[in-house]
Amino acid sequence: MPAQGAFATLLVLVTTLPLAAVRPDPIPLWPEGPPGGGSPGLSVLRVYPAPAERATSAAVVVCPGGGYRVHATDHEGQQVALWLNRIGVSAFVLNYRMGERHRHPAPLQDAQRALRYVRANAEALGVAPDRIGIMGFSAGGHLASTAATRFDAGDPDAADPVERVSSRPDFAILGYPVISFTEPFTHAGSRSQLLGPDADDPEWREALSSERQVTPETPPTFLFHTDEDDAVPAENSLAFYLALRRAGVPGELHIYQYGPHGVGLAPGDPVLASWTDRLADWLRTTGMLTGAERVAVSGVVRDGGEPLGVGTVTFEPEDPNAPVAWAPVRDGGYRVPAERGPVAGRHRVVVRDLGAIAPEPTVDDVRVVGTVDREVPAGGGEIVVEVEGESE
Predict the structure, then answer these.
(1) Rounded Cα distance, 170 and 231, in Å
(2) Fold of the domain built from segment(s) 3-285
(3) Phi, psi at 17, each rounded to 5°
(4) For 176, left (φ over 0), alpha (ψ -120 to 50), or beta?
(5) What CATH architecture applies to the domain 297-387?
(6) DSSP code of 367?
(7) How far apart (Å, rounded) are the C-alpha atoms in residues 26 and 40?
(8) What's the pLDDT tens digit per position in 315-347?
(9) 376, 315 in Cβ contact below 8 A?
(10) Which of 135, 132, 141, 144 minimizes the C-alpha distance to 170?
(11) Alpha-carbon distances, residue 272 vs 138, 141, 325 (angstroms)
């Protein structure tokens, strides 16, 4: 059976099984065998499609950690995939080549191939080709960060249609990642496993230190780490985040005080487990959970006919997957740029009063002074918000 036909059969089977019972069969990324030799079964994807009633068309290739020695298939693989499904994201867990027989660039080739595969088959998979991310933990985070900094647009003349599309992820998610191969805070075991005899070569260490490969084309990235991680110190995530800032790439970093290395979803820790909530917020805020375009809006907020002195205005969309847009209000005016603006469509607009700038406090607490429904036009523009000073 052709590879795409086998995939279609598998997709029908997976989508009819109860979510908790899913253990998808592997799909070989290289049906004829991977580059450099080896069995097709070494480089495979397992597909976890988002349930139809929740699907957002976003997709994530998941790279479990394991020091480039093993795959942490459960807590950094399937469990993460099923969580992604719960927020409407289709997941693709990658089994990448590693070990003594498969040094660099084998794992990177597999990650790039996985991104191309999902993009090339986006329509059949029910995902958007421009909202495909990569996610990795620990050494899998190193692989994901490498894929996010070393990519190409594809070969339009390739005989294989998968190879014709881009390997650039549209966003990256890094959990306690190994990032640097040059700094003292590196994870020496991952470096040795990936590079083997070249582990002491300064050129290879430099080339595979992801913080040194960030450019303005690196995709937006979410990172989380813990301060207690003594296997892969938080300086790894910090180095990558700072590199993103220098390159002008949007990023979000959370460093939790407590928690060891390798926590996965961190079940049982109500604080650390909140990293998934922060990730869901980030995916929504960045617009990765909707295909709708964000627009710039500005205007005037009036409370009882008078310009609101100091407050906020929030645009809450009808679509639960669309981003919420927020802006401060000063002397009645507000402005939200397109990169963090609302999407076109109906919104509940909430106005809050923060009080006046005066020698004495003028309000006891933040007050909701009114809500109105507004239609945000497709091109954005000026939206006047009038409320009547009724607090909730």
Answers:
(1) 29
(2) Rossmann fold (3.40.50)
(3) -90, 150
(4) left
(5) Sandwich (2.60)
(6) E
(7) 10
(8) 999 999 999 999 999 999 999 999 999 999 999
(9) yes
(10) 132
(11) 16, 18, 26
